[in-house]
Amino acid sequence: MFGDWQDSLFRFSAEKGQDVRISRIDSFGGAIATILIDPLGREVLREGIQTEATASLTYSGNYTLIFPNDADNGREFTFRVDTAPTPGLPMDSPTPDSSAAVMLGDLIEGSLQSLGDENVYEFSLDRPSHLNLNVIVGTFNDHRLRFTIENDSGLILEDQRLLSIDGLGGLARHGLLPAGNYTLTTHLRVNLSADYSFQLVDSSTYQVLQDNETVAFDSSANELRGFQFTAAKGDRYFLEVEGTASASVNAFQLSVKDTYGNELYNRSSTAIPVFETPFSGTYNITFFRNHSNVGDVRLSLHRLDPPVATPIQLNQRVSGIANYPLEREVFTFSVDTQTLLHFDSELQLGDAERVSWMLEGEGGIVIPKRVFDTRFNFDNVFTFTLQPGEYRLTVEPEFASEYDFTLAKQLDAAPIVFDETVFTSIPPGGIRIFQFDAVAGQRFYVDVEEYPDGELEEWSLLDSFGKSGFPERTSNLMVQSVPEDGTYTLLVSDFQSTDEDIPLRFNVAAIDPVQSTSLVFGQRYDGEILVPGDTAEFTFDVTQPELYSFDGLLEDDLNWRLDGPRGEVFSNTTADEVEFLSPGPYVLTIDPRETTTGPYAFKVDRFVDAEAIAHDREIPVSVESYESRIYQFDANAGDRIDINQTTSDQFTFRTWSLYDQYGRRVT
What we know:
The protein has one helix and 52 strands. The protein has six domains: 8-83, Jelly Rolls (Sandwich); 99-202, Jelly Rolls, CATH 2.60.120; 206-304, Sandwich (Jelly Rolls), CATH 2.60.120; 310-409, Jelly Rolls (Sandwich), CATH 2.60.120; 413-511, Jelly Rolls (Sandwich); 516-607, Jelly Rolls (Sandwich). The protein is mainly beta. Strands 8-10-14-12-13 form a five-stranded mixed beta sheet, with no helix packed on it. It has a five-stranded mixed beta sheet with strand order 16-18-23-20-21, with no helix packed on it. It has a five-stranded mixed beta sheet with strand order 25-27-32-29-30, with no helix packed on it. Helices cover 1% and strands 48% of the residues.
């Protein structure tokens, strides 16, 4: 261990011709900077050690080992220094023990005591095989034990971690091993003793698992369990893992492979254990726990039966439940004439994002796979025109869950007219469709007279071609304007948590075209916005550049906006405004956001019409609440001005502003 900015020094004796190996016993953290100095003070070695480093010694005597630390953080680690037992004997050429013949499936037990020890095992394969290494005794991710596999053609695997090979997927991950003779050699990476036991397992000997069968077994740390099952091309499966109260399945690996070693499912890369078999044959499942907990595990292989098509009718509410993730349900229907349909989902927002649907016709896919979430997303894909023919709709929940939907036929819509009250009710999770005629530019809003909470949030509007093309809506008070003459469709859905029909009384309220008023400067204007979306417009012309005051006369004035020859001057504000305007026509709009109702009052003054006042004279002022007055006086450059209120029995100035002759605000 070394502290902040502190180097650690160690000394050992060695003979000329010996090799030295510096090994880290731990394997945590980054590389450790290491320097080795010989008896003459020369560097023999300088490098960062992650696991080990070696050097040949050319002098006898005392060697110094330095671990420099040029940072303000301490570090703790463990290391070992070993020299070859006999000068001239390379450390990487140990004397091997005698080899032992083993059979696949045998429990192989061994022990290595010191650096240089090896255990050699020989086995044979009479046919190409997939092998896995099932370690019984050992600590997961222990870096000390290593193994190598070779056959007559050379190395197959070199210097692999013996106790972590299961966590990497086993030997089968490296391909199909050909028939022949093999040698497996175990050795130590550092000079620390280690015991081990393992099995070489042929995947063809895995326990056979039947469709929809559950197997229970004890799961030991680092132990691999293998299973095999037979499937036909196109079969779909759900692989379920559960643990008893004494078992934790939070840290395990699970994979499914075909007979060629190709992976169909791996828990580390795919969350939902659902897969489809690409051809008829045998498939392998491997379960490996890389955790210290030991307990019972239940593994179930559920074959998802091919969906049986269920006929449905248009305008019929369809509901169901999927018992397993990605379990598909198929529904069929026919269309006799060209028909405009709307896919309406009755799922809550979060659930709708986890269920998908797809529509196919006689010529292929009509609507590609997409989620159920139609709320707040009134795009064109949920409304579509179908030609006569047979159709197939597939529903696929991401998890085991319920689903609801309706294919609403717009030709069955109820006709309505503007400003006429409609009495109806909406079934739980249902939909109602209405149609009305409108001319280009017609403005309207949905006036809800009876409904829970008084707000109809779930509705959408479609044009004559079944396209939405209207802005996103979260309120019935949002004003709409139709772009062209035609028949428009209003779809009203219910997402209330109730099992009863919900009464609804509403009308589609038309908004009269806006009438403009020619504005007179200095005159007070009073009015009222009676319905959402209604506005008031006032027009005036500016003949020369000058200052104007826009003065709101109520405590809670509506928003207003001013547009001129160069575009918007100000908008979405209730505050009084002072603007220097260029020549040209102007339009002042009250309630430009078209969402509120209520009274308004204002006046517009020209600064050029302001009352002239003189210095050092009292000015009598009489104003109404929230009213502003404008005064003018002459001054020379450098004059100091004091504006003093001499009476306070009636009111106190709230604000005042001073502008120069160029329209610039002085204070």
